[in-house]
Amino acid sequence: RVVRRGDYAPPAWLVPDLALHFTLDPARTIVRATLKVERNGAHDLPLLLDGDGLELLALRVDGAAVDPVFAGEQLSIALAGDAHEIETEVALAPERNTQLMGLYASGGLLCTQCEAEGFRRITWFPDRPDILTRYRVRLEADKARYPILLSNGDPVASGDLAGGRHFAEWHDPFPKPSYLFALVAGDLVANRTGFVTRSGREVSLAIWVRAPDLAKTDHALHALETAMRWDEQVYGREYDLDVFNIVAVDDFNFGAMENKGLNIFNSRYILADPDTATDYDYDAVAAVVAHEYFHNWSGNRVTCRDWFQLSLKEGFTVLRDQQFSADQGSPAVKRIEDVRSLRAAQFPEDAGPLAHPVRPDEYQEISNFYTATIYNKGAEVIRMMHTMLGAERFRQGADLYFDRHDGTAATVEDFVRAMEDASGADLAQFRLWYSQAGTPRVQALLSHEPGDGRARLSLRQSVPPTPGQPVKQPMALPLRIKLFGAETAAPLAAEQLVELRDETAEIVFEGVSERPVLSINRGFSAPVIVDANRPAADLAFLSAHDDDPFARYEAIQQLMLDTLVLGVTQGRADHGAVIAAVRATLRDRALDAAFIAEAVLLPSESFIGDQMAMVDPEAIHRVREALRRDLAQSLAADWRAAYEGAHANRFEYSPAAKGARRLRTVSLGYVMASGAPDAPEIAFAQFEAADNMTDRQGALTALVNSDADCREAALDIFYHRYSDNALVLDKWFSTQALATRDGTLDRVIELAQHRDFTLANPNRARALVGAFSVNQRAFHTAGGGGYAFVADQLIALDKLNPQTAAKLVPALGRWRRFDAERAQAMRGALERILAVPGISRDMFEQVSKSLE
Ligand code: ARG
Ligand code: ZN
Asked: From the CB of residue 565, how many other CB atoms can be counted at a distance below 10 Å?
């Protein structure tokens, strides 16, 4: 099955109202649905309902029983009049639902996940996002086992029933697509607070968890209030119901879900306390809470017409959560982190067999399109509009978009048009960002003629071919550019925003009397790869003098990358420039610790690999370790000083304290890399004395990556200390799976047999298999054992949870970039997966495209 964007047709029948009645039971839940349907336009098409894995018990049209007629997977109902009432009754088995789509059981709860196509696993329904329906829901369940019964919207009634059962009724006044339906039943407690919206609506906020987790919900609740206020102030968006509920569940396929008024979260994005969550986890909790809340407007009030428009809500909402996080701490460090993850996840996707446009043209299984391209590149595309239009006109465009499309299912085109109409900008060429896949490359060459005081910057862009798109047109690229004088270190002119539109362009700068140094794509204004071929001296200069913090970070990272790539390709080991730049950065008192920590970290092994046509994982590891050791030893006293200087007396979650801990962990890594005899003791002492998980896991990671005698002891202590905390055990697994030392493959194979390992829990599966598959050196261990291991796990996981399995395929899909022996073994692993009888649609699409 291939679904094509061009085949979109409006629905033949609408469903303005739906009543759902659940008799909840983990073994056998009965769902009765009453759909009011209305003919949409003049036609004589039947009503088509989607269903997946449902046991149909009854079907009635206008009160009369009818025999079901199936058209493929759909139920087809011929109707004579323009308005009818359809009733269905189905049975489901939530406790046997290992896919975690539809209604399922998790840790004693019953909960749902419907996006993208899970609602059809609950009841027969036209399960497409352009059907907007008012829901009335009645839940009935055993009161002792499921004392709390939640659904979307506002609670309207509840009470006791015979036989120890009870009920609750919920009405959602906002018509919504079926993917936003949710229910939760369970023994839950709430952390509550009130929120008064700008226009005076009193909203009761609650985060629901199991009783032992209640103490870990303050951070998430605080983040929710902060996000609600921020959306009022920055986007003028207010909340619109009397209650806002969040529930944390342990078994969840991804991060979280924005169901109207009832967000459901992977518990890893809710639960946080200093002993169990790192600063990274705290930040992620706040970002995901904000993200899901922001969907209430960008996603729920204005939803998507079809799933090809997914980035309409996801790209925009990611941008909004990035802007929110930037406003809570250091915008520069946030930008560095966002670009780092774009380069780690999205650039490789754009360069590989699964490359697709931000608005795809076709899919086999929509679950496979919840990608870094849709989310993160989608956010970059909207960020570029923000850059080109400016904050004020961008806000006017967003207002117009929300006004025009409130209560409807919209398209990417609607969004761009609102931006154009509000600002007067012409975004015709810019739209190519939505249709052309692949990361554009920009070559930049700066020349200077001292005589006439002129500098010329020539730019040339190209967009690489991607599957199904052999030829590309030039894109509209906003590049923030500035020149600095090499002698004075002063800016030679104000920053310019250059919009490159043609394949080539030349920009002339006048009055350039000293040799200019080019700072380009400042702030990462366009998500492109810039080849500026700047010599090491210029990069070192920029790393010290650029006035854009992101550009400073870029300069030092590019210097490191150039050094590492030369080391791998030509065996050169000239580390002087990197050492000098790192020394200067470490000693610069004007810089904050968080920035320093990001800047002095070497590019990851896989990012180094991404720069090369042919990846040699062992050589990359060797060359990177050599530079790390050299940096560690040459700057030994600086690392010690940075380590000691970043010591805090008591845990505090603030930007300054986070930055200090980050620098402490990074410095500890270098202290360890120096090979100093006392280094393991320092790490072990930090590991034991830590009053927070950031310091403890930082020390554990340093030990696990080393050959220190105490590494196994530290792992044991960590395991026993946290053996009853699933989220921390995930760290125990992933820290070992990510270890860059020898023997990781064997350890990972062993860990897959550990009594705490299970593929049934997505977090655990990702912690071991997912983490291992991005550990470039270990995954590509000579002999192909890493590929075979991952293939075995994916084959087993596909039988339980196809969505989660399919997400882990891309590591194997990088085979073109490796030597013949590895490539063949990787292909062999993919072919073995493809040959398994009963392979899921999710896996089939990912694996077959990866082999093409
Ligand atoms: N809409 C959710 C979010 O990003 C994620 C849903 C993911 N669904 C999926 N089938 N992968 O906030
Ligand atoms: Zn989202």
From this structure: 17
